[in-house]
């Protein structure tokens, strides 16, 4: 029985809402924040099915991918509003985050969104840093060093929205939408780490990743972040 209990505890932890914030941030005096990246990523698997059902799933997935930008453009403004309650005033500066890069990989990625199900905010980089990113410390330090010539006590922010399909009773498809936000200072020290899950529309046989369905799940996740009890980050 112990393994089952452990498994259930693990799954519960994965879907738990969590906000960890440094004492260096104060909602009463928001620090400047620069959006480094905002990325939407979707799993391309659907409810199980073959033949006509499988074909229908593939067609719906491609159609949904083609509209991913309609949902994606709503993410940064909503996250910016929530960040204001956490002590960060996020802004965008594409020229600054791009620096001397010759290729805009975010634009390249968006050229293939219909096939990949990934969308990158045009004002940011194609750089994924989320709460589940392993060994991100080196990346945070490198980005802090690269972008650190801005305002004093500036933070650098990464938002990742991950859409994962969930099948219920073998026929009902539901997109789970996870919002992950990571912010760090110029030295690469984390200032904010947050995640929350929401649930999109439930439909038969396919997972509805339409803008309206993803918006529903995203709004639910943002509401959970807004209502979450904030944990103080442990000083290293």
Walk me through this protein's architecture:
- The protein has 236 residues and is α/β, with parallel strands linked by helices.
- It has one domain.
- The chain contains 9 helices and 9 strands.
- Strands 1, 2, 3, 4, 5, 6, 7, 8 and 9 form a 9-stranded mixed beta sheet that branches.
- Helix 4 packs parallel to helix 9.
- The longest helix is centred in the last third of the chain and has 17 residues.
- It is globular.
- The termini are far apart.
Q: How many individual helices?
A: 9
**Mass-distribution shape:** globular
Q: How far is the N terminus from the C terminus?
A: 38 Å
SS content category = alpha/beta
Q: What is the residue-mean pLDDT, rounded to a whole number?
A: 86
Largest sheet: 9 strands, mixed
The beta-strand count equals 9
Low-pLDDT sequence parts = 1-12, 47-53
Task: Encode the helix/strand succession as letters.
Answer: HEEHHHEHHHEHEEEEHE
Helix content: 25-40%
Strand-residue fraction?
25-35%
Oligomer: single chain
How many domains? 1
What is the radius of gyration?
A: 19 Å
List the helices and strands and how they pair.
Layout (H helix, E strand, L loop, with lengths): L1 H13 L3 E4 L9 E12 L8 H16 L1 H5 L2 H10 L3 E4 L2 H5 L6 H6 L2 H4 L1 E3 L16 H11 L7 E14 L3 E13 L5 E10 L3 E2 L6 H17 L2 E3 L4
Parallel strand pairs: 1-9, 2-3, 2-5
Antiparallel strand pairs: 1-7, 2-4, 5-6, 6-7, 6-8
């Amino acid at each position: 029985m112990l393994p089952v209990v452990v498994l259930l505890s693990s799954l519960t932890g994965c879907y738990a809402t969590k906000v960890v914030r440094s004492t260096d941030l104060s909602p009463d005096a928001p620090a400047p924040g620069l959006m480094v990246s905002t990325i939407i990523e979707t799993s391309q698997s659907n409810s199980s099915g073959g033949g006509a059902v499988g074909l229908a799933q593939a067609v719906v997935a491609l159609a949904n991918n083609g509209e991913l930008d309609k949902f994606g453009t709503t993410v940064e403004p909503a996250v910016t509003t929530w960040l204001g309650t956490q002590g960060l005033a996020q802004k965008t500066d594409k020229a600054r985050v791009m620096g001397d890069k010759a290729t805009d990989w975010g634009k390249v990625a968006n050229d293939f969104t219909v096939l990949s199900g990934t969308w990158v905010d045009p004002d940011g980089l194609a750089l994924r840093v989320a709460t589940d990113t392993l060994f991100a410390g080196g990346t945070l330090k490198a980005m802090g060093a690269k972008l650190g010539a801005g305002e004093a006590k500036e933070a650098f922010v990464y938002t990742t929205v991950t859409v994962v399909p969930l099948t219920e009773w073998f026929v009902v498809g539901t997109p789970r939408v996870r919002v992950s936000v990571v912010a760090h200072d110029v030295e690469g020290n984390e200032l904010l780490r947050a995640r929350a899950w929401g649930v999109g529309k439930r439909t038969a046989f396919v997972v509805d990743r339409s803008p309206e369905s993803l918006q529903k799940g995203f709004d639910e996740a943002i509401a959970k972040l807004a209502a979450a009890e904030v944990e103080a980050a442990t000083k290293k």
